[in-house]
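Regression report. Comparing outputs from two consecutive submissions.

Submission 1:
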Amino acid sequence: MPYKCALNISELISLADVMDELQLGPNGGLVYCMDYLQQNMDWLKEKLEPLAREHYLIFDLPGQVELFMMHDSLRQIILEMNNKWDYRLTVVHLVDSHLCTEPSKYIAALLLSLSCMLHLEMPHVNVLSKIDIIEQYGELAFNLDFYTDVLDLGYLMEHFDANPYLSKKYRKLSAGLCELVEDFSLVSFTPLNIEDKESVQALVALVDKSNGYVFSGLHAHTKAGDYPPEFSYTATNTQSEYERVMDVQDKYC
């Protein structure tokens, strides 16, 4: 692990042991580990109880899409924590921002984000990470808000039509996928530079609003203006998301 964590699932089951004993690859091994964790939720609950009382918990999950799009164990774990243990959870889905520099990769990122949202059925924040190095991968075809707000995706088709190497079937498929994403009208992104304190703070505030954590301490405050600090930051931050995205574009794009 590149950092010290309060709880490591390897205390329960190790991916390396699973791969060695069951002759599974890394993806299959992770699916098995998630199944095993689901069967041992009592262990997870016991380990989390002393942490949950006084801490803000972040669950760092592997990036294999099988766990989020099609396999059910992670979904069942999240639902049990949310519905039975009364945890306020938000899914934070990180997508590399460089995918915006190519229309086909951006559409793939949209589909992945939409699939995760529909499968996990939780408050969900999609993040364009590493926004500070996006210019290393080429110039964006549109303003950054086109990609964060997922505006009229039909404009992407102009770039497909301008590419003579793409078949008509490929362009038709891409147009259909764009229409599908727009019909659901669920996906949007927020940019993140992990080295920028304000960028991280804005993301945390967005997550806190999505799961209701920002309001968790209000019942203990009765005087006007006597509110918990996390609520104060969100309430006094008058900058709109559009304005923040434009500031990010001026800095990095």
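Submission 2:
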Amino acid sequence: RRSSDLTSVLSLARTRGIRLVSAHSQVWNRGFLQGRALLQNDKPEPEPADAAKAGEESSEQTLLQDVEILRKELDTAKTELKTKTTELTDRLLRALAETENIRTRGTREIENTRKYGIQKFAVGLLDVADNLTRARESVKDVVAQLQAGKMDLSAQEYADLLKNLHQGVTMTENAFQKTMAQFGVERFDPTGQKFDPHQHEALFDIPDPSKEANTVAQVLVVGYKLGDRVIRPAKVGCYKGGPEAATNGKSQ
């Protein structure tokens, strides 16, 4: 019986010893792991509630970062828009100023054209005026003396005086027609032509059965054209009674 009791005691001591060693081993392992975590700055795994809270904090932080990025982009867009607006405003003001300058110049040019548009034409007529003055001065003294009865001219002297006056007037007329032609104004004499109501003004008819009707028989006043436009129709008399009927619009 003593032997049996001793065996039981040894068995119990062995079992408790094993359990004690196991407990010490677990404590040692736990201390080792915690020490390693502390050395590596590792945090213990969070509890489920802590993990949810950490997720919410992470989401909030991400949202704040997105908002900050959007704010910076908005500030950049506002700066670019302000710069573009300033540039377009400047361009608009410049365009308006240029338009106003063009309008002012156009108004001034129109006014100058209205006032001085015939300047060259007027200068060309000055020679004509000078020739007319010289023609008048050449006979003024003679005419005055004749009217006062202080001069008695012979037929030859009269003829020479009229000849010189005719030459002066002819030269003046040629200068006048040359000046007119330089500015596109030309005279036309429709004698012998068919009557044209767009270019001629019939003042009377000349009965003549031997002549073709509606033919210009006589020109009282020559016509003038500016380019292709008639600025003064020729005043004429036309034959009537010939082969063709008279043209409407002529007056007896």
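Expected: both submissions complete independently.
Actual: both completed, but the second showed a warning that disappeared on reload.
Relevant detail on submission 2: Residues 48-116 form the longest helix (69 residues).
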